[in-house]
Amino acid sequence: MADPATDSYVDALADAAPAPTLQWTDCDSGFSCATARVPLDYAHPEARSIDLAVIKLPAADPARRIGTLFVNFGGPGRSGVERLRQRAHWPWLFSDELRARFDLVSWDSRGVANSAPVHCFPDATAQQLFFATYPAMPGTPGTEPPFFAAAKTLADNCGQRAADLLPHLSTENTARDLDLLRRAVGDDKLTYHGISYGTYLGALYANMFPGRVRALALDGSMDFRGNAVGLDDAAADQPIDTRQDVATGIAGTFDAMLDACVAAGPECAFSQGDPRDKWQRILERARREPISWDGKRYDYGTVVAAAGQLSNPAGWPQVAATLQLLYDLRDTPYRPTDVLAETAALVRQVADIGTGSAQGLGGTGANTYDDNYTEAFHGVQCADSRVPRDERRYSALAISEDQRVPVFGRLGVLDALTCAYWPQTAVHPYSGPWNRPTAPILVINSRNDPATPLAGAAAGAAELSDAHLLVVEGAGHSSMYVHSACSEAAKRDYLIAGTLPAGGATCPIDGNPFD
User: Most exposed of 87, 89, 450, 503 (fewest Cβ within 10 Å)?
Assistant: First the structure.
């Protein structure tokens, strides 16, 4: 077994590429920005290059600076540059001590925002019109065809308009980018905080560059092998989030939200009476007939999807208020004409965006729109994972998973349906190994996490050579959203000094989200 202090295992493709030169310039509010040039195709580094947008918040105490803390905020698909701007001063995420001792650095990963972005539409108007009229999550087999057709259209659009980028967007390549960034800032080893999808990037880095790991905090983690190919050839039989059992995570978090609602009393809009009984009454009505509210159509699938928005407990009061309104409207007649008027107004509104609607869906405008989250999400996630390709398998699983995990089962089946239609030439999952020896790794996960369930985080930690799991006794997704002074202190001690929490340790959360 190799010594983790050496480079016995190194990804040769990344090492063959030169480290980029970062020319930092001031970009407001204490941040510095730079552009990193990296190969598009690491197998041919001398060919086309792409530019990655990078941002840094310099260490507040340069005399005590340890190095750089690289941060990936998850997604995939959101701008790391913008997220660091927004969140660098969140004290439950980056304490004063962390900001004093490290430069905080994040970047837009390849395919995202300002780093060779994936664009699947001719312009912003076409993009926003497509997603504004995207069918709701189907609650019954009869409502599946338009949803399936839209998922296929998105995949086909991306395959046609981004064919040059899609084969190079895997997290394996992003791990290579990260090693070049580490070299560019002059750090001998990587110090890293990965959140959600960022934990997958951290796991790949640990196994591609095991001797270059100083400290990795994987926060809101997952079953890494399960994300790529599944266990025992599950990739041919189950989609990504079914393998991760996200449905059970959503159901557990929904129960925790209702418990917190009851405990909060009048502070929670859904607390009066029996919230679980009220929830069942909402579902019974939505199964019979949609609910009209403010010109919107809440059918069964839409109601379930709205109730499943649980990652950030700060949003739970709004979820509770929505549920209460749906409960209050459960006996009102459905008015489809309101929905038709709303849809028509939405189409008109979107058509007026940008260039004055002259180009529309068939336009030839430049790909200049900024928010390409959905395209980038699929560009990375579909590259990273093998999934079933047969629509009938998804229809069958939506039924069986709803039987296994009532109400929420289908969300884990259909939430990444576009990957079923993704171009095969762009699918490049990491094949392992997963357990190359590294410095110790800290894994943090909530007891009830709707996006990365605890069982998956435990499985992922077991796949790594030396990972230690800290459980936060709360609900929600990652310490970015689940506030816990205890877990922040544990993460801080680990990243600064390498000190790990005691085996089996847990952390409380800081209060009720409804307070």
Answer: 503
